[in-house]
Specification:
It is built from 10 helices and 5 strands; from the N terminus they run ααααααααββββαβα. By secondary structure, the chain is mainly alpha-helical. A hairpin with a 4-residue loop joins strand 1 and strand 2.
């Protein structure tokens, strides 16, 4: 017995249709979270309190559960105290006693000759030893994630730098010498600068010196688009906008030749030589060299960013 086509259609109509899977989140609710994050960032300076709390708890709990690491830190603290005591004793009897610890490469806070005199040398050496010990405290704690270790180390370093003797006018020999030569006028000038910066910040004005950078003369403005985006960076590729300026320049061999200029803004398209000279940023390479270098530089930067992100997430 054959079924009628109408019966087949009825059976298809009664068959339950598969339900569509709902999205995990709605854009409207996600926008609320982004607004809250942007509002919180105004008061935290861009730092996430939750991320800092997680990093701190990860470090503190694992350090509390690592007796071997605690004994190692106690041993290093005793050794550093002995080194500083030896340096202190030798500095009292020898004016040219050498330092017991050297600053990290790039740390120029104690490079002035005034820091080699007492008692400022003792203060600098004590701070550097303390800084090195806290570096050991925040590193190589068993069980701590690498990212949390870097966050804790960064925050600890910033807190230590606040208490650096170079940041205190009473313990900084360079500031004391400057105050002696100016009769204390450097403190008055610094107070005025701080009041001006505070007034500009409260009034929503840009910092001092930004008025010297004029868009179209000192800052380039060209159309751009985001070619790569992740949770950390946005890579923006700016479009080339070249015009023939008619300016005579010299190449690397000293020959007079015409080159293409890179206009700093749309104001350079007026055509007059005065506007071109005021608004153009003259590239030191010819157009063919420039167009060959830009993709290479962009690809190198993009590859380096991806490699660094992959290494940090590994």
């Amino acid at each position: 017995m054959q079924s009628s086509p109408r019966a087949g259609l009825a059976g298809n109509a009664q068959r339950p249709q598969p339900c569509r899977e709902e999205a995990l989140g709605s854009e409207a609710f996600s926008a609320i979270d982004r607004m809250r994050q942007a509002w919180s960032a105004k008061f935290t300076g861009g730092f996430s309190p939750m991320a800092l709390t997680l990093a701190y708890l990860d470090w503190a709990v694992h350090l509390a559960a690592a007796p071997g690491k605690q004994l190692e830190l106690a041993n290093k603290a005793a050794r550093k105290a002995a080194r500083f005591g030896t340096h202190l004793a030798s500095g009292l009897f020898q004016a040219d006693a050498g330092p017991c610890i050297a600053p990290l490469p790039g740390d120029r806070r104690f490079a002035a000759a005034e820091w080699s005199t007492q008692p400022f040398s003792f203060l600098a050496q004590a701070f550097l030893l303390n800084q090195q010990w806290w570096h050991n405290v925040t590193h190589e704690v068993p069980g701590v994630e690498r990212h949390h270790e870097e966050v804790v180390s960064f925050v600890a370093r910033q807190i230590l730098d606040v208490f650096s003797p170079s940041n205190n006018p009473l313990t900084n020999p360079e500031v004391i010498e400057r105050a002696r030569r100016t009769g204390g006028a450097n403190f008055i000038e610094g107070w005025r600068n701080w009041v001006e910066d505070l007034q500009r910040q409260l009034a929503g004005q840009p910092p001092v010196g930004t008025e010297r950078f004029v868009v179209g003369r000192d800052l380039a403005v060209t159309p751009g688009k985001v070619v790569f985006r992740n949770h950390l960076i946005e890579l923006i590729q700016y479009a080339r906008r070249l015009i023939r300026s008619g300016m005579m320049t010299s190449d690397c061999k000293g020959r007079r030749t015409r080159r293409l200029s890179w206009p700093a803004s749309a104001a350079a398209q007026t055509g007059s030589r005065a506007d071109l000279q005021a608004a153009a940023f003259w590239a030191p390479v010819q157009f063919d060299t420039y167009s060959a270098l830009i993709p290479v530089q962009a690809s190198i930067f993009l590859r380096a960013s991806v490699d660094s992100l992959s290494a940090s997430s590994a």
